[in-house]
Design a protein that fits this description.
Blueprint: E1 8-13, H1 21-32, E2 38-44, H2 52-55, E3 60-62, H3 71-85, E4 90-93, H4 99-109, E5 113-117, E6 134-139, H5 142-151, E7 159-161, E8 185-189, H6 198-211, E9 216-220, H7 226-235, E10 242-245, H8 252-257, E11 260-263, H9 272-279, E12 284-287, E13 303-305, H10 310-321, H11 324-341, H12 344-362
Parallel strand pairs: 1-2, 1-4, 2-3, 4-5, 5-6, 6-7, 8-9, 8-11, 9-10, 11-12, 12-13
Helix pairs in contact: 3-4, 6-10, 9-11
Length: 363
């Protein structure tokens, strides 16, 4: 095998793994890149929330306290010393939250890097990119790219869009939507954070139950807002119809149990978990924010509602509950869209192209 045909070694530099779309993005890259001639090694401070069955097939190195101020600097120097023994060809920094450490490593071991930006900068946030070593910035949607260009002085040619990809199961593996043999389940999944707008989801649940008390609601995920959401469910007197599911390695079991998936986010870069629900032919109701419009065609592949609006979300849920045929057709259209435009293989292929381009430029 010639040097040109040799596998490319890529370091995937990540933060702590959580049950969320950004962590799933890293795992999918690590799992599939080998099929395209890429050897990956994941470096992170904590991989305890990675399914052991997945982790056993990946090269993952945990460096505890890597994300802790001050102490993390010492750990980072240890990472550098280890990498200098056998440097990767390229570093792929998995989020802007670990950019400072990732590009410090790139400088120290003299390797180019690529950065993925999954969501929007905070109002007072600055993105400082070392253009000497940066070979590209991947954003997950046109909306995130436009925000990045508006908020920074980065050259447009440095930024490209590669949407997150998900696995699309065979049709025979899908469960029927709104079947008469079970109570309808309306759910949501993701980190339980304020930006996800989950109080509006619970507000809609309360309104729906006033019309149809037979509906069950499912909230899958963990995060800082969990206790507040549980309290709100009790305050709304709907606890008996709301199930919280946390401490899972992924959302697959929860998504399979849902008949309708809701995304009530106030801001959203793309919505990887929403794509997973769509791949299962689940009808989706999502707020019209950020990258949602690059996925949801209102009335065709899902329903779009205004953010922070429980009443609109309620009406859309009731519309689908009252018309199972429409809900199923919408779910099938959503699945076909994901199959055509958001497959994990497409994401990995396009990312690998950027790896090769980055190394060509670097050489």
């Amino acid at each position: 095998m010639s040097k040109a045909d040799s596998p490319i070694d890529v370091l995937l530099f990540a933060g702590p793994f959580e049950v969320r779309g950004t962590s799933a993005y890293t795992l999918r890259l690590a799992q599939h890149a080998i099929n395209y001639g890429i050897n990956t090694c994941v470096v992170c401070p904590d991989a305890a929330k990675v399914d052991p069955r997945i982790r056993s097939n990946l090269e993952m190195r945990e460096y505890r306290n890597l994300n802790v101020p001050l102490l993390g600097q010492i750990v980072l120097r240890l990472v550098k010393q280890e990498l200098l023994k056998q440097p990767p060809d390229l570093i792929h920094i998995q989020s802007r939250h670990v950019l400072p450490q990732g590009q410090w490593l790139a400088r120290k071991i003299k390797r180019p890097f690529i950065l993925t930006v999954n969501d929007y900068l905070q109002s007072d946030e600055k993105l400082r990119i070392d253009l000497r070593w940066c070979r590209g910035i991947i954003t997950v949607s046109e909306s995130v790219k436009k925000d990045l260009l508006a908020r920074t002085s980065l050259p447009e040619e440095l930024i490209l869009v590669i949407p997150s990809g998900v696995h699309v199961p065979d049709h025979s593996q899908l469960l029927p939507v709104l079947s008469q043999d079970h109570q309808p389940v309306v759910g949501t999944a993701g980190p339980l954070e304020a930006i996800k707008g989950l109080p509006y989801f619970l507000g809609a649940a309360s309104r729906v139950l006033a019309v149809n008390p037979n509906v069950q609601f499912l909230i899958s995920g963990a995060g800082p807002e969990e206790s507040n959401l549980r309290y709100l469910a009790r305050d709304l007197e709907i606890s008996e119809n709301v199930t919280f599911v946390s401490n899972l390695y992924d959302f697959s079991i929860s998504l399979e149990a849902m008949d309708i998936f809701c995304l009530s986010s106030l801001r959203q870069g793309l919505g990887t978990i929403m794509l997973e629900a769509m791949s299962l032919a689940k009808p989706v109701i999502a707020t019209g924010v950020g990258g949602i419009y690059s996925v949801i065609r209102d009335g065709e592949t899902g329903l779009v509602v205004p953010p922070s609006n429980s009443e609109a979300l309620t009406n859309s849920i009731l519309t689908l509950l009252e018309d199972p045929l429409k809900a199923r057709a919408m779910g099938e259209s959503a699945r076909e869209l994901v199959r055509q435009e958001f497959r994990v293989e497409t994401m990995v292929e396009r990312t690998v192209e950027q790896y090769k381009l980055a190394l060509h430029v670097a050489s």
